[in-house]
Amino acid sequence: MSSTTHFPDPGNFQHQSNEFLTWLAGKPGVKINPKIQITDLRSHAAGRGVVAQSDLDEGEELFTIPRAHVLSVQNSNLKNLLSQNLDDLGPWLSLMVVMIYEYLQGDQSAWASYFRVLPRNFDTLMFWSASELEELQGSAIVEKIGKQGAEESILETIAPIVRANPSLFPPIDGVASYEGDAGTQALLHLAHTMGSLIMAYAFDIEKPEDEEGERDGEDGYLTDEEEEQSSKGMVPLADLLNADADRNNARLFQEEEVLVMKAIKPIKAGEEIFNDYGEIPRSDLLRRYGYVTDNYAQYDVVELSLNQICQAAGLGSADIETQPPLQFLEDLELLDDGYTIPRPSSPEEPLTDILPDELLLLLKTLSLPSDQLEKQRSKNKPPKPSFGDSEAAILAKALQLNQAQYATTIAQDQELLAQLSQLEASGPVEGSVRRKKMAIQVRLGEKEVLYNLSFMLNNQFGAALQSNPLKRAANGDSDEPQRNKALRT
């Protein structure tokens, strides 16, 4: 979902939408149901969206896009102009190169009208300043942005291609070339823009024998097996659908020659048509797509690092080579750097139904006396996961350590959101204010997960934890009235 500031030439917003639809409808084989329309939703901070003009039946086709009109490596002429084989770059980087090329062609590109309706600025975390990212202090999502790694890939893989072919990649932003500091920064910004479009909008285009495709994977990269089965592509019109976990009413189906968007439930006239990103937490929604919605609050998670868990267990460090329990699990390929815990759906839910098996195994292994650990090592088998008093004590301490990383409390975040809601009453917030609000929503959701887990631990293991009492979510008594609300979210 995007705001007015994300699009170039906002004064021609509707004209660009109309031009795009005319361009797309004129392509051979494209079918667009006359019952749908592209709508200006900037007043709702949603950029463009697709809305039903008349009632739509379940299974009704909304639009059909032949594979030949997908913006992809296969369909771009660039592959015939370079000596390099773009497929060798992998699905992610190869599409990034193609999109840079097509964008720089301007009106000469076959997808020029398409580029005009795509956002040019983003609220994805890749584009946040250091001060803006400080609002996410405590959240593990900051470590997943990967900006440094992305820029290394751009400079090592994409920059040599661009610099070696100046006639195909003309410089922009007033630079003479993509050499030097100014040229490098211009290229990095352009590559980040295309990478963000791919992250937010690209589909995995499967081979024709496969029937159905979904959005880009969690990290934006595919496994070797997936690379053999699919490539990446930008599907015109399909990516103008906004996403909503609760109101998802459409899905893209991949057929032999075409991609077809169909209604998966009846849609009433005036209703927006929504795709779905799947069950992802709001932190990842912000990282990948640059927006936050409360409809995804149910998927919020908290991540405990291996360091936090080891500290909670009393280990001097998380150094694998010097810690026998960690070395044991590492040898069995059962050790992770972090462990994700989802939002509990009910305070009565058993913790063993919530905690991932890998975390239960780590807690169990860290609780073993040295002789039992040695016995398991001699068998070369992990212990059977269980969750008792010892494991609960380690988890309780780890939750406290995680909670302590946040600079604000639940109550303070709720007050900040209330103030921003008053500000929004006069119109959508933009820029750093918008980003601050989204950061507060993300960190508040994570704190609620931590609080709920702490509350459940006290309920289920309170007596055993008296010798190691939990701080009340590191928030003080002021958060007590919010307990039930947090558990219901």
From TrEMBL:
Residues 34-278 form the SET domain. The lineage of its organism: Eukaryota, Fungi, Dikarya, Ascomycota, Pezizomycotina. The keyword S-adenosyl-L-methionine applies. InterPro entries: Rubisco_LSMT_subst-bd, Rubisco_LSMT_subst-bd_sf, SET_dom, SET_dom_sf, SETD3_SETD6_MTase. This is SET domain-containing protein. It comes from Aspergillus phoenicis ATCC 13157. One of its GO terms (molecular function) is protein-lysine N-methyltransferase activity. PANTHER family: N-LYSINE METHYLTRANSFERASE SETD6, UNCHARACTERIZED PUTATIVE METHYLTRANSFERASE. One of its GO terms (biological process) is methylation. Residues 209-228 have a biased composition (Acidic residues). Residues 209-232 are annotated as: Disordered. Keywords: Methyltransferase, S-adenosyl-L-methionine, Transferase. GO terms for cellular component: nucleus. The keyword S-adenosyl-L-methionine applies.
